[in-house]
């Protein structure tokens, strides 16, 4: 084979591979890109669907929402299956089952993938258990008091909002705060630094006044 032809084929194959890789990267939209509205259409779709699901859960029970979703999915697939069967009968074609590609697709979870996610989850669970043990057994008095204050404030939040309402507000804030922060990052960071300084000063004064409070060293 001519060296120039061979190099041209290699270049074209590399260009095709690079094009596929770039297309795959563009098709994958991370959670960070979604909440920052990098692609307004996809972010709007995800936000709309999540709000629809949460509002449905607020109006109906979980069982009803899941049942309606599965029923809607079944109606779509059954209708499409019957439609394709009628079209094949009229046209006398032998295309076969319209969902054959999906049926033949392997949807089982590989044991390695399952173990990988279990190990990753176990790391977070052990970290959370250790943190809870440290807080509830009062290893550090100030940290335990901060948790008590947070839980006391949450009793008031729970008296005003239920769980679904909090999730709806959290979903709205999740999609609204990141773009606002990105546009006003400098000003918001200044206010956050001022608030952090005041909180640290208050905590330091509280640690000095509390009898028997364990002060953490810089090494910790």
From TrEMBL:
Keywords: Endoplasmic reticulum, Membrane, Transmembrane, Transmembrane helix. One of its GO terms (cellular component) is postsynaptic density. One of its GO terms (biological process) is brain development. Gene3D superfamilies: 1.20.5.2480. Residues 31-220 form the Reticulon domain. It is a multi-pass membrane protein. It is found in: Endoplasmic reticulum membrane. Its main location: endoplasmic reticulum. The chain crosses the membrane at residues 160-181. Pfam families: Reticulon (PF02453). This is Reticulon. It comes from Seriola lalandi dorsalis. The lineage of its organism: Eukaryota, Metazoa, Chordata, Craniata, Vertebrata.
């Amino acid at each position: 084979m001519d060296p120039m032809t061979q190099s041209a084929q290699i270049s074209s194959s590399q260009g095709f591979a690079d094009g596929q890789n770039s297309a795959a990267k563009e098709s994958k939209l991370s959670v960070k890109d979604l909440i920052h509205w990098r692609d307004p259409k996809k972010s709007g779709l995800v936000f709309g669907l999540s709000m629809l699901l949460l509002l449905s859960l607020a109006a109906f029970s979980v069982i009803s929402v899941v049942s309606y979703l599965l029923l809607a999915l079944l109606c779509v697939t059954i209708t499409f299956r019957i439609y394709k069967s009628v079209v094949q009968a009229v046209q006398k074609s032998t295309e076969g089952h319209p969902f054959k590609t999906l049926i033949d697709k392997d949807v089982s979870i590989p044991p390695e993938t399952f173990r990988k996610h279990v190990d990753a989850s176990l790391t977070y669970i052990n970290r959370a258990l250790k943190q809870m043990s440290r807080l509830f057994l009062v290893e550090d008095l100030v940290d335990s008091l901060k948790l008590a204050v947070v839980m006391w404030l949450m009793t008031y939040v729970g008296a005003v909002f239920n769980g679904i309402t909090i999730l709806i507000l959290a979903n709205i804030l999740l999609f609204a705060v990141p773009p606002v922060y990105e546009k006003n990052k400098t000003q918001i960071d200044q206010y956050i630094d001022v608030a952090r300084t005041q909180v640290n000063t208050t905590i330091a004064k509280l640690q000095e006044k509390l009898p028997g409070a364990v002060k953490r060293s810089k090494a910790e």
